Amino acid sequence: MKKSFGDILGEWENAHSQNGAGGSKKRSNIDENGRQISRKKANAPSKEEKAALSAKKSDEELMEEATKKRIHPLELWLRRHGTVDKDAELDSYNEKVRMESREYIRTMKPEAKIDLHGLTRDEAWSKLESFVAECVRRGLKKILIVHGKGNHNARGSDPVLGKVVQQFIEQNAHLGTSGHPDHTMGGSGATWVILK
Fold this sequence. Notes:
This protein is of the alpha+beta class. It has helices at residues 5-28, 39-43, 47-69, 73-81, 86-107, 121-138, 160-171, and strands spanning 112-115, 142-146, 175-179, 190-195.
């Protein structure tokens, strides 16, 4: 005869009520080998339960730390894995290239040269204007202006053309960095200029 679910449930309740609470406790205090174990051991969590509790606790601790510090998950990932600031690297590379090219231009020989010896202030200015315009048109990078040290003029040590050249360099939009070459190319009696 087939038993219905209600019949099976009734039998189970009868069996459970006959054993009582004490019977079930006795069963839980007996290990798989049939030996009696203490209540502490019977109520202690199993290894699996301990591992689950410790894992759960560590997750909770992590969440608590993250909440206390209020670290954004993206920031946490970036701290852990690092980033590369491509903009900063590009700026650094461009600066390096620019400095190398600037240093190269400083050390390169002048591509054109003008000698202003014997000219008056106004003559030197107009010659410089036409010379620089021609150099810009030709696309030159570095020029040399020979102006002399001023040792041979009427007043002695006043280098008039040197001051004119410096004023011209400061006022001309096409001229950039300048300096004096070594003594083999004129020393303080000449000025090299980098064209922009």
